[in-house]
């Protein structure tokens, strides 16, 4: 006998952390079906044949699984039943889904915003310290276990490194993560905070963070001693930082990217580092991820990590929890809309469609 409860289509692995909430709050409200496909072609066929019926929500609690169908685009999204109210996913990024198209079909897209704020801002803070103090170069030398290399690097580091204090941190994209970073960099490192965003922050936020607003990206780049990127990847931010933008930065300045790899043109970055125009860079994300540029990997003035900005257990726990909470907030007992998600990404597109 079919369940009278709204159906949720679960993509990827089973939940791992929030079992009490799942049992007491989530599973009791919804009929949860696990998608069994492992590739795009078979998933498309499942949607065409209505294998999973008229489900009300898509649930992807782990950003490292459930992506077997590839891009959510104009081929895939129109196949979703009209009953779908929300796509709730773990992770902060959403460049793999056309969230505006989802919104146009009156489907909310909600991500894991907030869950990774602490971890990503901590990672960016570490990278700022690394590019000012040349910690990667020092680590490479220490790991040689060679006394001569150790001594030579010990002497060199003191002549090329700077304290971050009183230097200008230029932040591109002033959301929750970068505001946390601004607070940490200002209070712990004594940095001066400047930022650029298409939407200016509230005056109270600027005052609390001592943040100076720039109405153009170019103006921010000209004054910053270190630029930290915090923008989503979309058609407007692809290669946002290229040859022209890097040329505007001060000679000897630094670049940190914990956003998305393709926001920075990789070849332009390599050229700026090789010429000495940039003194250092730190990348948690990579243009051809998971492939890291072999050229960048050889540079001792470049800090590289494996997209672990949000990689803390607390992040994973809250990604999973927030995906459930967003569905509960949106889907009513009969599968109708009952509210908005806590972390909507496509609110503008959704509301435009809903108003028609």
Automatic annotation (TrEMBL):
Keyword Ribonucleoprotein (UniProt): no
Gene3D superfamilies: NAD(P)-binding Rossmann-like Domain (3.40.50.720)
Sorted UniProt keywords: NAD, Oxidoreductase
SUPFAM superfamilies: Formate/glycerate dehydrogenase catalytic domain-like, NAD(P)-binding Rossmann-fold domains
Ranges for domain D-isomer specific 2-hydroxyacid dehydrogenase catalytic: 73-310
GO terms under cellular component: cytosol
Domain D-isomer specific 2-hydroxyacid dehydrogenase NAD-binding: 126-309
Molecular functions per Gene Ontology: glyoxylate reductase (NADPH) activity; hydroxypyruvate reductase [NAD(P)H] activity; NAD binding
Assigned protein family: Belongs to the D-isomer specific 2-hydroxyacid dehydrogenase family.
PANTHER family with a match to the protein in the record: 2-HYDROXYACID DEHYDROGENASE-RELATED, D-ISOMER SPECIFIC 2-HYDROXYACID DEHYDROGENASE NAD-BINDING DOMAIN-CONTAINING PROTEIN-RELATED
UniProt name for this protein: D-isomer specific 2-hydroxyacid dehydrogenase NAD-binding domain-containing protein
Biological classification of the source: Eukaryota, Fungi, Dikarya, Ascomycota, Pezizomycotina
């Amino acid at each position: 006998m079919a369940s009278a409860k709204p159906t949720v289509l679960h993509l990827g692995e089973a939940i791992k952390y929030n079992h009490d909430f799942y049992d007491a709050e989530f599973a009791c409200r919804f009929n949860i079906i696990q998608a069994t496909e492992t590739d795009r072609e078979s998933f498309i066929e499942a949607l065409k044949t209505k294998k999973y019926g008229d489900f009300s929500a898509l649930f992807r609690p782990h950003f490292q699984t459930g992506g077997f169908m590839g891009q959510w685009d104009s081929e895939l999204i129109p196949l979703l039943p009209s009953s779908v109210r929300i796509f709730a996913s773990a992770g902060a990024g959403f460049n793999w889904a056309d969230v505006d198209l989802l919104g146009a079909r009156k489907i909310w897209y909600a991500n894991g915003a907030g869950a990774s704020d602490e971890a990503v801002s901590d990672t960016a803070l570490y990278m700022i310290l690394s590019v000012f103090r040349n910690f990667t170069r020092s680590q490479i030398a220490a790991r040689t276990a060679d006394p001569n290399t150790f001594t030579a690097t010990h002497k060199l580091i003191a002549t090329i490194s700077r304290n971050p204090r009183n230097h200008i941190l230029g932040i591109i994209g002033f959301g929750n993560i970068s505001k946390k970073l601004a607070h940490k960099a200002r209070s712990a490192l004594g940095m001066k905070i400047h930022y650029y965003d298409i939407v200016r922050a509230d005056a109270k936020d600027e005052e609390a963070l001592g943040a100076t607003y720039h109405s153009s990206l170019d103006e921010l780049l000209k004054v910053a001693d270190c630029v930290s990127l915090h923008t989503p990847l979309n058609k407007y931010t692809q290669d946002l930082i290229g040859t022209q933008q890097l040329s505007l930065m001060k000679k000897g300045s630094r670049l940190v990217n914990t956003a998305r790899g393709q926001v920075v043109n990789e070849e332009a970055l390599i050229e700026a580092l090789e010429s000495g125009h940039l003194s250092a860079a730190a990348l948690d994300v990579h243009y051809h991820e998971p492939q890291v540029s072999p050229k960048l990997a050889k540079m001792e003035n470049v800090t590289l990590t494996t997209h672990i900005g949000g990689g803390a257990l607390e992040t994973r726990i809250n990604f999973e929890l927030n995906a459930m909470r967003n569905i509960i907030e949106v889907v009513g007992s009969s599968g109708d809309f009952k509210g908005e998600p806590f972390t909507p990404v496509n609110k503008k597109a959704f509301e435009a469609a809903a108003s028609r």
